[in-house]
């Protein structure tokens, strides 16, 4: 899978449970997507859920 071009991305380092990480990795394989792509999708969904502004997808990420 090719890396998207455009705006540089920032790194996020946070502890999560082993079970959550395993389930997330399995989902990524099943969907043939990178973990980062799924994480960005989840973050956007949470922003929408709580009525927060969501950056446009073309702003430094895969379109």
TrEMBL record:
<dbReference type="InterPro" id="IPR046765">
    <property type="entry name" value="Antitox_RHH"/>
</dbReference>
<dbReference type="InterPro" id="IPR013321">
    <property type="entry name" value="Arc_rbn_hlx_hlx"/>
</dbReference>
<feature type="coiled-coil region">
    <location>
        <begin position="21"/>
        <end position="49"/>
    </location>
</feature>
<feature type="domain" description="Antitoxin-like ribbon-helix-helix">
    <location>
        <begin position="20"/>
        <end position="53"/>
    </location>
</feature>
<protein>
    <recommendedName>
        <fullName>Antitoxin-like ribbon-helix-helix domain-containing protein</fullName>
    </recommendedName>
</protein>
<dbReference type="GO" id="GO:0006355">
    <property type="term" value="P:regulation of DNA-templated transcription"/>
</dbReference>
<dbReference type="InterPro" id="IPR010985">
    <property type="entry name" value="Ribbon_hlx_hlx"/>
</dbReference>
<dbReference type="Pfam" id="PF20605">
    <property type="entry name" value="Antitox_RHH"/>
</dbReference>
<keyword id="KW-0175">Coiled coil</keyword>
């Amino acid at each position: 899978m090719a890396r998207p071009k455009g705006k540089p991305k920032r790194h996020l380092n946070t502890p999560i449970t082993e079970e959550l990480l395993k389930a997330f990795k399995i989902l990524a394989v099943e969907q043939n997507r990178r973990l980062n792509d799924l994480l960005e999708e989840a973050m956007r969904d949470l922003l929408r859920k709580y009525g927060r502004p969501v950056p446009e997808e073309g702003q430094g990420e895969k379109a």
